[in-house]
């Protein structure tokens, strides 16, 4: 597996070794020992999530404070633009974001440690996203930052004159400067 650094050092892109022949292909999507070697730390995943979304759906920017979740995100169908925002006040990259296309074709995974808000926009007609988390979902500890916050200025690949399809929860996201952040 190859690890690729992003503009925020704690966010990593992981590209698996893919073995292809006339029958199809094979790759390891997760190997605990390999991930530990690449990230330098051993993480325990406690929950797997599978999200199915249609084109133009935007989910996020979500995070939990009391139950912070690190995430390992991959796409098994379609393509998304995946975004992580650093919300750790003590970080030199506080308020910065990175975004990358993740797809079934490129098989790239993104590692997002706790302390980041996370979201994605569906580029393809349909997308299925799988992600592992290091803590359980806690609806009483869920927060959301506005996807279109002007202070963050995230460059989502949304076509001109188009509004993304958002959940009621995401429509109520707080501005970045009003949201609760990690220390």
Give the distance, in angstroms, between the N- and C-terminal Cα atoms: 32 Å
What is the radius of gyration?
Answer: 16 Å
Based on the coordinates given, report the CATH architecture.
Sandwich
- Percent of residues in helices comes to under 10%
Shape: globular
Sequence of secondary-structure elements: EEEEHEEEEEEEEEH
CATH superfamily label = Jelly Rolls
| CATH secondary-structure class | Mainly Beta
Strand tally, please? 13
Q: What does this entry look like structurally?
A:
- It contains two helices and 13 strands.
- With 183 residues, it is mainly beta.
- The chain has a single domain, classed as Sandwich (Jelly Rolls).
- The protein has a six-stranded antiparallel beta sheet, with no helix packed on it. It has a five-stranded antiparallel beta sheet with strand order 9-8-11-6-13, with no helix packed on it. It has a two-stranded antiparallel ribbon with strand order 3-4.
- The mean pLDDT is 95.
Secondary structure topology:
Elements: E1 2-5, E2 12-15, E3 19-21, E4 24-26, H1 32-39, E5 47-54, E6 58-64, E7 71-77, E8 79-86, E9 97-103, E10 109-112, E11 116-122, E12 126-133, E13 142-144, H2 168-171
Antiparallel strand pairs: 1-2, 2-10, 3-4, 5-12, 6-11, 6-13, 7-10, 7-12, 8-9, 8-11
Give keywords:
single chain; 183 residues; mainly beta; six-stranded antiparallel beta sheet; five-stranded antiparallel beta sheet; 2 helices; 7% helix
Could you give a short description of this structure?
This protein has helices at residues 32-39, 168-171; strands spanning 2-5, 12-15, 19-21, 24-26, 47-54, 58-64, 71-77, 79-86, 97-103, 109-112, 116-122, 126-133, 142-144.
């Amino acid at each position: 597996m190859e690890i690729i650094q992003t503009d925020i050092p704690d966010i990593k892109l992981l590209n698996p070794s893919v073995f292809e022949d006339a029958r199809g292909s094979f790759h390891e999507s997760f190997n605990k020992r390999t991930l530990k070697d690449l990230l330098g730390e051993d993480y325990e995943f406690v929950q797997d999530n599978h999200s199915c979304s249609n084109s133009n759906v935007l989910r996020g920017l979500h995070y939990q404070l009391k139950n912070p979740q690190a995430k390992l995100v991959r796409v098994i169908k379609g393509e998304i633009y995946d975004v992580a925002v650093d919300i750790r006040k003590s970080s030199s990259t506080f308020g910065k974001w990175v975004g990358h296309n993740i797809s079934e074709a490129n098989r790239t995974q993104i590692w997002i440690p706790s302390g980041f808000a996370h979201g994605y926009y569906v580029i393809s007609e349909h997308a299925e996203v799988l992600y592992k988390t290091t803590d359980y979902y806690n609806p009483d500890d869920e927060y959301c930052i506005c996807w279109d916050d002007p202070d963050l200025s995230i460059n989502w690949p949304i076509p001109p004159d188009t509004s993304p399809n958002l959940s009621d929860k995401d429509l109520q996201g707080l501005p970045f400067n009003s949201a609760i952040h990690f220390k």
